[in-house]
Amino acid sequence: MAQIQKDSASLVADWETLRRIFIRPEDDNSKKVLVKYMEQILFGLHDFLNKHVGVTEEISLIKLAEEYTDTKINKNPQKKLANVIKDIIDEIAPRAVNVASPYFIGHMTSAIPFFMVHLKAITAALNQNVIKIETSKVLSVLEKQILAKMHRMIFNFDETFYLEHVQNTETCLGVFTTGGTTANLTALWVARNKLFAPKDDFKSIETDGFYQAMKAHDLERVVILISKRGHFSFRKAGGVLGFGNQNVIPIDVDETRSIDLVKLKKKIKEFGADKKTKIAAIVGIAGATETGIIDPLPQLADICQKHGIHFHVDAAWGGPVLLSEKYSHLLKGIERADSVSIDCHKQFYMPMTAGMVYFKDPKALDQIVYHSSYVNRRGSVDLGIKTLEGSREANSLILDSSLKIMGSRGYALMIEYGIETARQFSEIIEKRPLFQLLTKPQLNIVTYRMIPENIREQLKTADEIERRRLDAILDDINTRIQRTQREAGKSFVSRTQLKINTTDDYDTVVLRCVIMNPMTNVSILNEILDEQESILKNILPATPFQ
Amino acid sequence: MAQIQKDSASLVADWETLRRIFIRPEDDNSKKVLVKYMEQILFGLHDFLNKHVGVTEEISLIKLAEEYTDTKINKNPQKKLANVIKDIIDEIAPRAVNVASPYFIGHMTSAIPFFMVHLKAITAALNQNVIKIETSKVLSVLEKQILAKMHRMIFNFDETFYLEHVQNTETCLGVFTTGGTTANLTALWVARNKLFAPKDDFKSIETDGFYQAMKAHDLERVVILISKRGHFSFRKAGGVLGFGNQNVIPIDVDETRSIDLVKLKKKIKEFGADKKTKIAAIVGIAGATETGIIDPLPQLADICQKHGIHFHVDAAWGGPVLLSEKYSHLLKGIERADSVSIDCHKQFYMPMTAGMVYFKDPKALDQIVYHSSYVNRRGSVDLGIKTLEGSREANSLILDSSLKIMGSRGYALMIEYGIETARQFSEIIEKRPLFQLLTKPQLNIVTYRMIPENIREQLKTADEIERRRLDAILDDINTRIQRTQREAGKSFVSRTQLKINTTDDYDTVVLRCVIMNPMTNVSILNEILDEQESILKNILPATPFQ
Lengths: 546, 546
Prior knowledge:
homodimer
C-alpha cells in the first residue's frame, strides 16, 4: 500500500506494486485505507448528492467537451487511487447528472436503495461469469432459481411445473440480459426462428439465413405489429434481425393512448389477405416508455391465440407492478404472453444495467442455442448456451438479495406510491390553468404541456389550420421551458412528442414526468410546476405568437 | 438504520423504512454501520479467497441445485442487509468459483486489481446512464475521450484527426458494448449494412430487410470468412443478423494454428466465381480464445484491400497487447482493419462485463443509427444513437480511472509477464515426458495434453487408423484428468478440442491454460502439472487402453 500511496510525482509502474494491487492488503493499516476509500465513495458522493439539490451543474456541454480532448494514453501512472476517487467526487460527480435527486423526474433512471451499491460491489468482488458453470458454480444455480421466481410471478404455473423446471438443465424459463433492448431483441429472435419450420432442404432461419427462409416458405414480407408508442428497441431489433425496421409496423393508439384494436385487426386482415406476408409477432406494451400506458393485454392475447401469432409483452417498465396486490390487475393478460421482457434497472431499482426476458414455453429458447467446444458444451448446464450476450456478471445475485431485503411487499409499496403520487400530480396539473394534462396516468408516468392564457383562448375558436399554427407555437414554448429548466439545474423533466387528439395527423411537444423516486412528493412536484410557470412568464414576451 | 437492523423475525416492509434506504444515513453511527458492511465485502470475501486456495468447494451440482428450488417470492423482508452480506460471504462465496486464485488458469476470467471493486462501486453510486446526455452529462464526454484514446492506440492517426473527432457529435470512433459478443455483432452489423448500397426502390438492408436486400442486389448468398478458431459469437452473429450461421465459413488453420491463407484465398476465388455470392467480411483473430494465436493481420489486410472486403479484427483478448512496447508488434496490421473489438473484462482487468468496438471510419456507425423522440433525438450528442444496447452504465469511467492509476506501462507489465510466463510454462511442458505441447504460445494461452508412457510408445509406430484409436483413448484420459482436477478444487485448467496435426480430419481433447493472473508463477504451474501427473497415475489402472 505504501507503494501506491507515495507521491504522484514519483509514480511509476513497477512489478511489485502491480502484484500488490491484486493481493488485497494483509496489514490493518492498509485495510483501513481501503475502507476509508469506500467511505468516501459512499458519503463523499452522498455529500454531493445532498448539497447539490438540482440535477446538473450549469456548465455548457461545449465548454465541458473542451476539457476532454487529450487522446494520448499516459504511459506512467498519473494518479493514486485516493486521488482518482477524490477527483471523481470533486470534479466528475458535480458535472454528472444527479439522477438520485427527487427533483429529477424526467427519465426512468432514479435513486436506488443505498444497499444496491454494496450488492454491486459484492458482484464485482466475486467477479463471477455466469456464461458457464466453470466460472460461476452456485451463481448459475441461484440464477436459475430467481428466473423461476420471476417466471412464476408472470405466468403463475403450478408448483409441479416449477419443481420440474427450476433446476432443469434441459429447459430454460428465461435469461438475464443487459437491458430491455437486448431482452426485446431476444424475444423477437425466438419469434423469428419459430416462424420458419424446417422444409425440404431448408433447416432453419438460424442456419440458412433470412433469404433462404423466405424462399423456402414462399414469402415476400414478415412483419411485427406494435403500438406507435412501442420502444425504439423494436425498430432496432427489426433492423438487426433482418426483418427490416420498416416491417415493424406502428399501429395507431386510440383515445386511451393504448393500441387501437380496431386498426390492429384491420391490419391483420390486410396482411392475412396477402399469402406472401406473415406476421411474426404482436407486441403488447405494459407501461409505454413515454406515457406509462398499458395495452389491452387480454384482447391482444385473444387476437394472437386466434391467429397463432407469437405474443410478446414489453413489460420492461411495468413488470414489477405484478408485485403489487393492489395494482397487478392492471397487467392482467400478461400470463397469456409467449414472452415477456422486464428491466432490473428500472422498477426493480437495481443499478445500471440488467434486463430479463421470460418465455412461457420452457423449450422456446432452444430456438437460439449456441455451443462451443471450450465452454457451453452440449448437455452442460452453462447458462450462456441460450443468451444473446456472452460473458455476463451475476446480476441475479443483486435481484435475489434485494428481494430478500425488501420482500415483494417492499417493491409493492414503492410501485403503489409512484402510481398514487402520479395520480395526485395529474390532478394538480388539471387544476392549474396554464397546464394541459394529456391523459390520466395509468401507472406513474405523466405527460402534459403548458399553454399560455391567450393561446388557450385562441384555441377555443380555432379551426384546424389555426390550431395547427398554435400547436407549433406551443411546441416551441414547451421545448424552451424544458430546456431552460434543465439548464437551470434545479429540476428536470423530459419532453417527447405525442398527438393531442387521436385524429391529429401531427405530433405535439409534451413534457414528461416519471414518478419513481420515493423521495419525490407532491410538494416537490408543485415546486417543479411553479418553476415552469415562472420560466413561461420569462420567455413569453420574446415569443412570437400573434 | 435502526429499522433495518431490527430482528429479522419482525421484518416488515413499511414506508418509512423504504424511504430511509433511499436516503443515505446522516448520523455517524449509521454511516459506520454502512462502512462496516463494505469492510466485510472487501475483506470477508478476501478471507475466503485467501483461505480457500482451490477454485471451488467440493459439492456436487446436483446437491447444490437441490437447495435452490423454492420458486415463491417472499412477501415480507427475509433478511437484513447485514445478514444478506454475511450469507453471501459464508454460503455463496465458498460455493462460487475462486476465479482470483492463481491456481485458476482455465478461463479468461481472473483476479482483478482490488481498486476495481471501488471503481465499480462508484459507477453504481453515480448510476449514470450513458445512453443519453440527460442522464450522464460529463460521463458521455469522458466516454468519447476514452474511445478516442483507444482508437488512437489501435489506428494511430495524427493529432489533427483526433482533435477533430474526439468530441465531435457528428462522428463516432467506437462504442462501449456489454462484451465481445455484442462488439463482434456490432461490427458485422455495420459490415452487413455497408454491403447493400441503395438501389432503385431499395433503401437499405436496415429498413427493407435481408430478403429485399438480396433481391435488390441479385444475390443468393452472403458469407463471412473466419478461421476455424474464431469465437462462437461470430456464428451467433451470423444467425442473429440474418446471414445464417452456416454462412459464417470456417477456414482451416495451418501448422502455426492461424488462418490458412492458401485455403482462404482459394475460398475467396471460389466465391468470387459465383456472381450470386458476396463476402460481407473477413475476420482476423488477434488472440484466439482457445489458443491465443494471432492471425497474419497484414496479409489479411492486403487480401481485404484487394477485394474491397470489410476487415474485422477480433482483438477481444489480444487488444491490450498494443500497450506493450515489447510485444505490440505481434498485432501489426491491426491498424489496417475496418473494425476492431476489444474486451474490457479480459486483459483490461475490469470487472464483468464490458466490451468495445472501434471503426477506422468515424462515419461507419452511421450505418446503424436509431433515433427516438424522447431521447436520442437527431443532432443530439446522445451516445445511445449508435449502439446495439440501450441503457448502459458508465464503464468508461472504470477504464479511464484504471489507466490513470496504472498507466499503459502498468498494463504492459502484466501483459508481458503473462506472455513470458506462458513461454516458460510451455518449455516446462515440453521437458516433462508425460506431456505433449500443442504449439509454442504466441500470447499467454498454452494448450497441451497428457500422454501415458506406453501410449507414447505405441504412437511412434502407429498407422493412421491406430493413431486415431489411441487419440480416442487420450481424449478420454485428458477429459477425465481435467474433470478430476476441477472437482478436487485445488486448481483449474479448462479443456477444448483441437487438431493435433493440421492434416488430421478429427479434433482431439487438449488442456488449456490462460496465464493472466500476475500471482500465477512457474512454481504454481509446476504444482498444477504435478497434480495432473498424480491424477493420471490414479486413473491409469482403470483405463482400458490395450
